[in-house]
Amino acid sequence: MARSGKVAVIGAGFYGSTTAQRLAEYDLFDAVVLTDIIEGRPEGLALDINQSRPVEGFETKVVGMTTGRDGSGYEAIAGSDIVVITAGLPRKPGMSRMDLLEVNARIVRQVAENVARHAPDAVVIVVSNPLDEMTALAQLATGFPRHRVMGQAGMLDTARFTNFVADELAVPVSSVRTLTLGSHGDTMVPVPSACTVDGKPLTELLPAEKIDELITRTRNGGAEVVALLKTGSAYYAPSAAAARMVREVYTDSGAVQPICAWVDGEFGISGVYLGVTAELGRDGVRRVIEIPLADTELAELHKAAEAVRAKQADIQHL
Ligand code: APR
After folding, report:
1. Measured on CA atoms in the order 13, 18, 19, 21, is the torsion positive or negative?
2. Which of 118, 184, 302, 317 is catalytic?
3. Which of 39, 89, 98, 115 to probe ligand 1 with, by most ligand atoms within 8 A of CB?
4. Whole-prediction pTM value?
5. 6-151: CATH, from 3.40.1410.10, 3.40.50.720, 3.20.20.140, 1.20.1110.10
6. Is the domain covering 154-317 a CATH 3.40.50.2000 domain?
7. Rounded to 5 degrees, what angle do the CA atoms 182, 183, 186 make?
8. For this structure, is 317 an active site residue?
């Protein structure tokens, strides 16, 4: 199989290292570069993943690189087609994603400036939290066109929702389609009208109270894992979603997925990074796709847009 392309993952914590592993196991890319500011950590993890290659049967090489506060080491990401930003602190039990705003803004700004310097043509996928704000900040700090900077959240929230529905109905996850839009946080907008099981509307299969219960669990999906882990936040489902986004972009698939994208008039909303359905391709976001929404869902999406707009205005000064 011909392999090509280079993907960089910034931050070699739980989220970054599992993303690098998943990307390498796709066996699609020439190289996956993993970086972190903790001396030796990315190099050690890269060595470890590379040593799994004979067992798992993939050839993609993972390259680890420690980066300095002065930007040293970033030359390793030169020529990357896609950069995934996972650097930043995760939540502790009881914290909201918004509690990470200031500390992660400093980290993401520094990372994004170095990405712009060393991988000026890359598509950037942000996963650091609070997601919608960090995506907006990464676009500002890179100065990249907005279609080349996006955030991962909707694919994860949707995967959580799908998993809960499949468990509730005791059906395979593959027969369930769900959708969440809005912010990756309190103003997440689950879209029951777009949810189906084997093509049948979810609203015909479960009572409204049960759907509400699953929606609440989805909205609190990350916090539920944080509370159980006690240190750190989720990374298996998040890294699955981030790696899948990378693949859709790199293969120019045209897949329509819920992602955090710049919205410019679609759904009657303008000038904000928000969770919406969008078509992915080699240049990033090809276009935001306006799917039909129930009136209440559209109203909730507008509410989410205003909530993140206010926060995204603040980050310019962080
Ligand atoms: N440059 C590169 N890496 C950095 C920087 C920086 N400036 N600052 C911090 N890091 C690294 C840390 O050294 C750590 O290894 O980011 C990594 C974060 O890893 P974890 O603490 O394991 O957190 P993780 O679970 O990977 O989550 C990362 O994703 O889901 C979000 O809320 C989560 O914002 C958090 C991010």
Report:
1. positive
2. 184
3. 89
4. 0.97
5. 3.40.50.720
6. no
7. 110
8. no
